[in-house]
C-alpha cells in the first residue's frame, strides 16, 4: 500500500488507503468496504460537513444573486425558474461527491472519529 495523496483520492472518490477502490455505490451512498483492498468504510462519517461547505461557498452566493436579480429588475417568476434555480443546482450538485470524498479521505488520513473520554494511564488495568 502506498501513501495516497489526500486530494487525489478524495476528489476522485477513491479508497483513501489504496487509491483504487471506489467510495460510493450510488451518487453519494457509501460502499461498506473497498473492493480493492477491503478497507472497512465504517470509519467514514462526514455528516453535514460537505453540505455546510457547499452551502457557504456555492449556495449563498447564488441565492444572493437571485435576490439581487429580483430586487434590481423585478423579473417575472419564470426568470428565476430558468436562471436562478438551474444556476443553484449547477453550482451545488456537481461538487457534493468530490467534496464528500475529500472529507472521507481526510478523516482516514487524520484518524478522525467521535470524541472519547481520556482515561489516565494510572487508572488503566494492567
Ligand atoms: Zn482500498
UniProtKB/TrEMBL annotation:
It holds the Pfam family DUF983. It comes from the Bacteria. This is Membrane protein. InterPro entries: DUF983 (IPR009325). Keywords: Membrane, Transmembrane, Transmembrane helix. The keyword Transmembrane applies. The chain crosses the membrane at residues 51-71, 77-96.
Amino acid at each position: 500500500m502506498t501513501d495516497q495523496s489526500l486530494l487525489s483520492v478524495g476528489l476522485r472518490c477513491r479508497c483513501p488507503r489504496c487509491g483504487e477502490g471506489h467510495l460510493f455505490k450510488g451518487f453519494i451512498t457509501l460502499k461498506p468496504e473497498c473492493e480493492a483492498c477491503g478497507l472497512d468504510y465504517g470509519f467514514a462519517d462526514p455528516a453535514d460537513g460537505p453540505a455546510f461547505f457547499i452551502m457557504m461557498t456555492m449556495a449563498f452566493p447564488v441565492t444572493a444573486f437571485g435576490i439581487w436579480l429580483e430586487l434590481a429588475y423585478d423579473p417575472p417568476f419564470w426568470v428565476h425558474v430558468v436562471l436562478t434555480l438551474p444556476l443553484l443546482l449547477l453550482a451545488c450538485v456537481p461538487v457534493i461527491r468530490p467534496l464528500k470524498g475529500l472529507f472521507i479521505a481526510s478523516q482516514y488520513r487524520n484518524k478522525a472519529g467521535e470524541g472519547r473520554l481520556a482515561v489516565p494511564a494510572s487508572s488503566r488495568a494492567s
